[in-house]
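Why do we bother with holo predictions? Because pocket geometry can differ from the apo form. Keep that in mind while you read this record for protoporphyrin IX containing FE.
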Amino acid sequence: MTRVTSSLDPFSPEFRADPYAAYEELRALGPVVWLEQHDIWCVHHYATCQKVLSDYAVFSNAGGGGIGNYFVEKPWRKPSIILEVDPPEHTRTRSVMNRVLSPRVFRELRAGFEEVAAGMVSEALAKGEIDGVWDLSRRFPLKVFPDSVGVEDEGRDNLLIYGAMVFGAFGPVGDWYKSFMAEHADVSDWIIARCQRDRLAPGGIGQMIYEAADRGEITDEEAMMLVRTFLSAGVDTTVDSIGLCLKALAERPDQYALLRADPSLARNAFEEATRYDSSSQSIFRTTLCETEIEGQKIGKHEKVMSFLGSAGRDPERWEDPDTFDITRKIKGQIGYGVGIHGCVGQMFARLEGEVLIRAVAEQVERLELTGTPEFRLNPGLRGLDKMPMRLH
Ligand code: HEM
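The structure, written out:
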C-alpha cells in the first residue's frame, strides 16, 4: 500500500492552537499517516491507537517516550525505568508503583486534599478576579502532590520547570526548547537531590518507594529513579488537565450549571474533560521489527505518534464527540493511555481533579472568562499559561 502523507506539523504553533481541526483532517486521510515534516508515522483513530498501544511486543517504549529515537540517538537524560522500558523490566518497576499507589493511599489522602481545595477556592472567590491557572489549577496540585510524595516546601516551582523540560523533550529540539534548557539546566540537579531517601518526608509516597528497595524489590538507585518519574509525570499533567477542565466548564455555562446543581458530577466532569481536551495529546512508540498495521507496512525502529487527543474526538467511537457533556457515559476514554503503560498515576490525577472541581462547584455560583485563555508553548503537553476569570 502506498503510504498516505501529510505535511501537518503537530509541533507547530498553529497545530497546537487548535489540534482538533488537524485531527479531523488526519482521520479523513486514513488510519496510518506519514508526517513528512518529522519522518514519523501517526495514528489518530480510537481503535488504531488502542491497537498500537496494546501491542508492546512490536510497538516498544524502549525507543523513548517522545519523538527522539533512543535506538539511534543518545537520550537527553537517563531514560525512565518505567515509561521507557518494555517487559520484563517494565513489569518489575510497574508492580512496585502499583503496590505503592494502592486504594488505601487514596482513601487516606482524600480528606486532606478536600481541605486544601476548599481553602484555595474560598480565597480565589474572595479575590473575585483571578487567573484560573495561577490561583487554582497550578496552585492546588503544586501543594497537594509534593506534600503527598514528601518533597520539601522550598523551591517547588522547580517541579513545574522540570515538568516543562521533560515534556518539552518529547518534541523536536527547537528554539523554544533550546532557550528553555539553557536557562534551566541546573533544575535537574535540584530534582535529583529531592529524590534521595534522606530528603523525603517520613510517611510520604517517596519513602514508600524506598521501602520497596528495603524489601529487595528494587535497588536504591531504582527507587531514586521511580521518585524522579513521579516528579516528572505527576505535576504538569494534572495542572494542565485541571486547567483545561476549568476552561471547558467556563466556556459552557449550561454544563457548569449542571455541576453546580449536583457537585457529585465533578468526577465525571474531569473524566469527560480528559476525553474532550486533555493535557496529554500524544504519546510515542518505536517499532522493534518490521510490521503492518491497518494494511500499512512500517519499518523497524520507526517512530509512531499516537494521538490520544484525536482518539477522544473520534466519531466512530463517541457520539457527538466535539460536545463537552459532563453527564456522558465516559467509560473507555483513553486519555491516560491504554495497555501496560497506561498511566500509573491516573487515580491520583482523578482524585486531584475531582476534589478541586467539586470544591469550585460547591462554592462558586458562576465562572466567567474575562479574557482569552493563553496556551503554553511546550510541544509535549497541552496546557494554559493564563486564564483570566471572574468567580461569582
Ligand atoms: C491528568 C493527569 C495525567 C494525564 C493526562 C496522564 C497521562 C498519561 C499517559 C497518556 C500515559 C501513558 C504513556 C505511554 O503509554 O507512553 C501516562 C503514563 C504514566 N503516568 Fe500519567 N498522566 C497524568 C497524571 C499522572 C500522575 C499524577 C502521575 C504520578 C502520580 C503519573 C505518572 C505516570 C507514569 C509513571 C506513567 C508511566 C507508566 C508506565 O509506563 O507503566 N501520571 N500518563
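The radius of gyration is 20 Å.
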